[in-house]
Structures are given as C-alpha cells and as structure tokens.
Amino acid sequence: MSIVLEESIRAWMAGSQTLREQITEQGTARFIAVLGSTASPDRAQVDRAAARACDEVFTALTADAVLDSLPSAPTEAGAREALRSRWLSLNPAWTLPLPVSAPGLPAQRLAIAAAIGSLLGMALLGGLLHLTLGVRGLGMLIGGPGGAALAMYAVGRLKESKILRNGLKTLLGVALAADLLGAASFGLGALWGRLAGIGLLRRLLIYAGAVSLLAFTRGGAQYDARAYRASIRDLIRQWVDVSSILLGCLSAGPVTPPGDAVLDAGLARAIQDLHRSDVGNLPAAAESLLLEARRMGLEGLSTPPSFTQSDRAERPHLRWSRELEEQYRPFGLIEDGDTVIVEDAPVIQNGRVLEKGRVRKQR
After folding, report:
1. pLDDT < 50 stretches in the chain
2. What was the pLDDT predicted at 253?
3. Of residues 26, 45, 29, 48, the one with CA closest to residue 37
4. Where are the transmembrane segments (predicted)?
5. What sign does the dihedral 262-267-271-272 (CA atoms) show?
6. Where are the chain's structural domains?
7. Which residues, 6 or more positions from 355, have their beta carbon under 8 angstroms from its beta carbon?
8. Model's pTM, two decimal places?
9. C-alpha distance across the termini of the chain, in Å
10. Which of 30, 261, 299, 313 has the fewest beta carbons closer than 10 A?
C-alpha cells in the first residue's frame, strides 16, 4: 500500500510541476507587492508580507480544482473542508528572513551625481581646451565621462569618509560663524569673505551647495532587491513542494467530516415542552426535564430543585481535601482542611465527571 501511495504521489507531483511554479510566482509577487518600498524593511513588515504571501499560496494550493486532481481526491464538500483543516494545522509557520542590508546611496542619487559631473566636466574641460587649443569637441568628449566618474567617486568618498564629512561641516560652521560675527559688527563684513574676495551672494550659494552636498551624500541601509526576491522565491518554492507532498499524503487517508451530535429523543422532547410551557406549567415542565436528565445518569439531581422551595437554599460547605480535586476546581489558594463553599456543582454522568465544579475558601 505504501509503495502504491508513493508512486501515485510522485506521479501527481510530476504532473503538477507547472501549477506549483505558478503558485510560487503568485506568492512571491504577493510578498513583494505587500513589502512595497525598496527601503530596508523591518521584522514587522517582512512578517506582514509573509502572512499575505502564505494566504495567497494556501488559497491557490487548496482550490477545488487542485484537490480534485489529488491521487485520492475527496468527493464531498465536507471532506474537502476536513482535508483543508488538517493540512493547514500541520503546515509550519512561515518565517522569511530579513534582507541583507549594507550602507550605501540609492541608484537615483548616483545617477544624478553622474549627470551633474558629466555636465561640469564637459563645460570645464571643453572650455579650457577651446581657450588653449581651440578644440572644444575633444574637451567635451573627454570631460563628459571623466566628470561623471570623478563626481561618483567624490560622492562615494564623502559618503564613506567621516573625516571628510566632519571636515566639511567644520569649515562650513567656521565660515558661517565668521559671517554672523561680521554681520553683528555693524557692517565690518566677514573677514574670510573679504580676504578671498567673495561677495555675500556667492557665499550664500557656497553655503547652500555645501549643505545640499552633505544632505545628498547622507545614505541609509540598502539591499539588493533582485537577489532578495530570488531568495524569497526559492524559499516559497520549497514550502510549496513540501506542502504539496503533505496534501497528497493526507488525501490518501480516510478524511471524513465529523459526524453531527444526536440529542437523546426524550431529552429533546422535554426541552421543547419546557420552551412551550406557560408560567403556570413551568414547574411541571422543569420536573419532566430533570427526570430525563436523571434517566440519562446525570447525578446530583435527587434532591428537590431549589425553585420549588420557598426558602433560599444555602450553598453547601465542604472540608477541602486532595480527593475533592477530582470533582472541583479551587478558586484561589486553598489548603487541606480549609472550609470551602461550593460555587458551582460538578456535572457527573454515570460516575464520569463531565465538568468540574468550582469552590472558594470561606473567609
């Protein structure tokens, strides 16, 4: 039997290869869509995306068309639901890894730096060669890629080197302090600006450029989105394959829906009579229901019911012992020999405790 089952599952796995690949791609696409941005995600974002991808895969893998193609396909709707329930309960939880992140600059910023460097290189080197040799085209041809390379290198070095960033911040702070000091001296002017022959407007442009450069080169954690997608797809493919084998194994066993509980006919009739009784006939209907319960072996109903007595029945008191733990649940700390009050009586049928009662310590 096991050999036949193994061969049938192997044949089904071979025939459903394309379907499993499609389900894998659906789960991967769902994960990436929920994950959203290219910024480095945290644990909560990855778990949320994994849960959505898991739902997508499970829904596709347990569709009626897939279940009908199993080696031992369930024929009834109840059997399908029972198979899905067993399969979901045995599937392990999905825990997808976080992407491997490293500090760096986004590709958009590098592209902007390359474009600006290329323009500056063509303008400077082209103008220089035009003034000296009269060949502007050659200068622009060399200055374009050279300026782009130098700009990307400078941006990368400024991003990685704390010394360069701190030095630029220090120079910017000193220059700004000198300008503020000069402005506070009632028109004496900034000493460094006068010595360098730089006007106020140019100094403001230099300040803005330095601040923009520092902000432009301030990068964060980056990861390779393509490599991360490939790793997630491989993990989802493994889960799909293992879950498919599990689904095939479970379908071979007897999967039957749980049977409906049948209520005793006499007890059901007594309950209906109690529900249809008016106020005057309630005691008689309740007594009929209690008789049916006693007939079925429910213990603790031999004494007259409390609603037939004029005086309020006092709750029974017991002396707590270890033997009572088989029928009662203690509420709070109760030690042997303590006097306890029975809050709820146990439900016992034919000597078997269906539900324990509850007791509390007498204060």
Report:
1. 1, 185-190, 195, 255-256
2. 58
3. 45
4. 110-131, 137-156, 168-192, 204-221
5. positive
6. 2-101+223-252, 103-221, 261-312, 314-363
7. 346, 347
8. 0.45
9. 66
10. 261
